[in-house]
């Protein structure tokens, strides 16, 4: 994994913007995997400001709450339209977000996987990380080979995300999420993590053993996984000085 430590979420998001802008310059019809949550908000805001050409880009979102209609204010659909899609020139037909109202969830999940394959696979997957190490909504003990499927949220994740819903009671228990195997299929991973509450999950994912108890640790097996962290999220990394040294001494052509 490549660990990039930045002073603030703003500078960290700036690096993520540059990585995505470069990909779109090199491949205007790139396929992006996208995430919801508070972490990628700055990234989306800045990407909008950059006025890039999204007309040929395809997107696949990681997850959606089961039972929420696309128009529900807390759905991934709504989040993505409000914070990103409505502000860029992306074609509606190129946007894919799991259907929280799918009648037959296993069939829907197979179709989602098929759509990702038909698009040529995901070039770059944006990820956040849960305080328990989840990526997408793959909670601890999720199979590291899992594909898109239904998952039950842990009590901790429901607590962490209750703020979005106003209260925990209003939160669904189930989600449809790309699996860890699906995420690992992306050609490049770009994980963002900000704040002290992510420091333990980040340290275990980067420097701990590969274990389904911390799903993000599976990314150690990915050939091109970048983690862009602010100082607080990097606070528990034992080799932080080394990661900083590596980044500062990169050849110019390799810098994000
Ligand atoms: P957050 O969520 O960006 O709202 O912190 C991250 C996640 O749960 O993956």
Structure description:
The chain has 256 residues and is α/β, with parallel strands linked by helices. Helix content is 32%, strand content 16%. The protein is built from 8 helices and 10 strands. The strands form 2 sheets. Strands 1-10-9-6-2-3-5 form a 7-stranded parallel sheet, sandwiched between helices. Helix 2 links the parallel strand 2 and strand 3 (58-61). Helix 1 (9-26) crosses helix 2 (41-49). The longest helix is centred in the N-terminal third of the chain and has 18 residues, at 9-26.
Strands, helices and their partners?
Blueprint lengths: L1 E5 L2 H18 L4 E4 L6 H9 L8 E4 L1 E3 L10 H8 L11 E2 L8 H14 L5 E4 L21 E4 L2 H11 L8 E4 L2 H5 L4 E5 L5 H9 L17 E6 L9 H9 L8
Parallel strand pairs: 1-10, 2-3, 2-6, 3-5, 6-9, 9-10
Antiparallel strand pairs: 4-8, 7-8
The chain binds 2-phosphoglycolic acid.
The site of 2-phosphoglycolic acid has 7 residues, from loops.
The end-to-end span amounts to 15 Å
Ligand species: 2-phosphoglycolic acid
Q: Kindly state the mean pLDDT as a whole number?
A: 97
Oligomer: single chain
Sheet of most strands: 7 strands, parallel
* SSE order: EHEHEEHEHEEHEHEHEH
Low-confidence stretches: none
Q: What structural class do you assign from the helix and strand content?
A: alpha/beta
Reading side by side through the largest sheet, how are the strands ordered? Answer: 1-10-9-6-2-3-5
User: Approximately how much helix is present in the residues?
Assistant: 25-40%
The percent range for strand residues is: 15-25%
- The tally of strands reads 10
Gross morphology is globular
Using only C-alpha atoms, the radius of gyration works out to 17 Å
Put simply, the count of helices is 8
């Amino acid at each position: 994994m490549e660990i990039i430590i930045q002073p603030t979420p703003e500078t960290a998001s700036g690096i993520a913007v540059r990585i995505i802008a470069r990909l779109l310059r090199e491949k205007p019809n790139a396929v992006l995997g996208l995430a919801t949550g508070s972490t990628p908000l700055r990234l989306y805001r800045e990407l909008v400001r950059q006025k890039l050409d999204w007309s040929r880009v395809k997107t696949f979102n990681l997850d959606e709450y089961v039972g929420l209609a696309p128009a529900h204010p807390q759905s991934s659909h709504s989040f993505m339209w409000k914070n990103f899609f409505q502000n860029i020139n992306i074609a509606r037909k190129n946007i894919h977000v799991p259907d929280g109202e799918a009648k037959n969830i296993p069939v829907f999940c197979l179709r989602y996987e098929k759509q990702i394959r038909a698009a040529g696979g995901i070039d770059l997957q944006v990820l956040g990380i849960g305080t328990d190490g989840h990526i997408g909504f793959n909670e601890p003990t999720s199979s590291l080979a899992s594909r898109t499927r239904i998952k039950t949220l842990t009590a901790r994740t429901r607590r962490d995300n209750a703020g979005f819903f106003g209260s925990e009671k209003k939160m669904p228990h189930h989600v449809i999420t790309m699996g860890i195997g699906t995420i690992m299929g992306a050609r490049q991973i770009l994980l963002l993590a900000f704040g002290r509450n992510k420091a333990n999950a980040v340290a275990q994912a980067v420097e701990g053993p590969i274990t389904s108890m911390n799903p993000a640790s599976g990314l150690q097996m990915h050939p091109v996984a970048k983690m862009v962290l602010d100082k607080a999220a990097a606070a528990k990394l034992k080799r932080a000085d080394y990661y900083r040294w590596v980044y500062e001494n990169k050849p110019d052509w390799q810098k994000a």
